[in-house]
Amino acid sequence: MTTSASETVVSAFLQRQPVRMLIGGQWVDAASGKTFETLNPATGEVLARVAEGDREDIDRAVKAARAAFESGPWAKMTPSQRGRLLWRVAELIEEHADELAMLETLDNGKPIRYSKGSDVPLTADHFRYFAGWATKIEGETVPVSIPNMFTYTLREPLGVVGQIIPWNFPMQMASWKLAPALAAGNTVILKPAEQTPLTALRLGELICEAGFPDGVVNIVPGYGHTAGAALAEHLDVDKIAFTGSTEVGKKVLMASAGNLKKVTLELGGKSPNIIFPDADLKWAVRGALTAIYFNSGQICTAGSRLFVHRDIYDQTMEQLAKAADAMRVGAGVDPATEVGPIISQEQLDRVAGYIESGQREGAITRAGGERLGGDLASGYFLRPTILDQVRDEMTVAREEIFGPVVVAMPFEEIEEVAARANQSIYGLAAGVWTADVKKAHKLVALLKSGVIWVNTYNQFDAAAPFGGYRQSGYGREMGHAVLDAYTQVKTAWISLR
Ligand code: NAI
Ligand code: MG
User: Fold this and answer.
1) 381 and 397 share a domain?
2) How far apart are CA 465 and CA 446, in angstroms?
């Protein structure tokens, strides 16, 4: 599709009154008739009206998903057929790449260079990777020590899966949830974030076009405390996969108790990024920028605690501040933009509150710190910010800020920095910059986090497992690890006596 053709499709999509939800293969209004607005964070203006799902819509979606799981074409489909459907979704995403990228940039704010260059291709890739797994989910034969017994396991789908996702990578999060669940043969109800429902709904249309049977994928937009809570509590939902704040993750876990549904949680982080004097400093500085400013810092793996060795501290901070000041902040639709807006006024206030708290506790602002004015005053823009002279015990060094704000601290010894890096309720990611392979492996062993990047940062691939230690959550996504979270093991004993 050409750029102008995809712009026409995007504007037609946005003008729907409202954008509807997907239940049982039908595009429907909310049972209540209510709608909500989704905004463009670059302008603060209303982008589209969306059907507002609530308890009754969730219940209808769960019934549709249950029916599709228990009977109907999906239940009888071969793994190969499931794989083909997932592969077809990947192709359709690529065919509609420009349109999806534009929709993502408008709804979430992220720079078009990333929605086009990263979000769309990675979303397609996720479907393609799990298309391959549909035919490779195997049980085992078990060498039991009881004579004349043939014992084997089957890996079966869980059933009806509820999936609740955040606003920071709307399309990618949808693919991380949908693709493995479907590869394993489950049926799903996806609840996108209220700030960014659009690409998940457009993806729903492509899923229908690919030929998924009715009710296999249901997409119900709405708020967390209504639609989200109803899904987490629902007694006929077998599993909830949640990505979002640690606070809400705990609520989801409590809500799961009613029917002991399985839960996997991808939650917050306060990830350390550690630079040693033997690192290639130019790369390390570039890496530190990517670690914190990619997606305006609104990423659970953000390298938000920067530990720099004392011997190179001053020069690193100087280079970092210069590079942060030079970053192009602006509307995501501008191809030159490197850092887009923050998602909402609420998040902007929250992040600004953290900057003030850091300054109150004695941090020095080395870059940024202020909101953008002029043409950008009506959007939620904040300059890339560096807080220096931070101490481990300050609030800004302990709590997830989820914005373009890095706190910097010097260190001296490897054991010291590992201990300080591990001093967190979180344990999602960590970065290490060094030319010394021994230091690298030592830190991989010492750091308590689910992913460690050495001389790189924020790398993701459908084949590489991802998830947290401690209060960053549990369960893994991506790779074959995630299939454990969407299947259950059945053991069969056949007496041969
Ligand atoms: P949130 O955790 O409230 O939202 C994530 C998802 O959960 C959304 O779909 C929301 O509608 C849903 N939700 C909210 N309350 C719910 C409930 N009671 N039951 C079921 N679902 C519910 O995150 P929010 O408020 O958008 O952001 C606040 C902070 O959370 C951020 O500043 C950041 O620190 C953290 N966060 C972390 C993310 C991550 O990727 N780890 C993503 C988004 C936010
Ligand atoms: Mg929006």
Assistant:
1) yes
2) 19
In this structure, the answer to whether residues 207 and 308 fall within a common structural domain is: no
The parent domain of residue 282 ranges over 272-461
> Residue 411: inside a domain, yes or no?
yes
Q: 285 and 254 share a domain?
A: no
Nearest of 304, 302, 294 to residue 386 by alpha carbon: 304
CA geometry: angle at 329 spanning 326 and 331, to 5°? 155
How far is 406 from 294, CA to CA, in rounded Å? 12
The span from the CA of 282 to the CA of 44, in Å, is 37
Is 276 in the same domain as 173?
A: no
216 part of a folded domain:
yes
What's the rounded Cα separation, in Å, for the pair 356 and 296?
18
CB 472 within 8 A of CB 427: yes
d(CA 332, CA 324): 18
Catalytic residue, chosen from 52, 300, 338, 477, is: 300
Name the residue among 445, 449, 443, 487 with its Cα closest to residue 467.
Answer: 449
Co-location of 375 and 428 in the same domain: yes
Q: What is the 3-state secondary structure (H, E, C) of 288-354?
A: HHHHHHHHHHCCCCCCCEEEEEHHHHHHHHHHHHHHHHHCCECCCCCCCCCECCCCCHHHHHHHHHH
Q: In terms of pTM, does the model score above 0.90?
A: yes
Count of structural domains within the chain: 2
CA distance 391 to 410: 9
Instruction: Let me know whether 122 and 187 are in one domain.
Output: yes
Residue 82 is assigned to a structural domain of this protein: yes
Q: Answer yes or no: 194 catalytic.
A: no
Q: Are residues 361 and 384 both part of a single domain?
A: yes
Amino acid (one-letter) located at 478: M
Farthest-apart Cα atoms in the chain, separation: 84
- Same domain for 209 and 294, yes or no, is no
- Residue 340 has a pLDDT of 98
Whether 98 is in a domain gets the answer: yes
248 CB within 6 A, ligand 1? yes
Indicate which residue's Cα is closest to atom 18 of ligand 1. Answer: 225
Residue whose C-alpha is closest to residue 272's, from 461, 472, 447: 447
Residue owning the nearest CA to atom 19 of ligand 1: 229
Q: Is the pLDDT of residue 1 over 80?
A: no
CATH of residue 38: 3.40.605.10
Cβ–ligand 1 contact at 401 (below 6 Å) = no
pLDDT digits (tens, 9 = 90+) for 214-272: 999 999 999 999 999 999 999 999 999 999 999 999 999 999 999 999 999 999 999 99
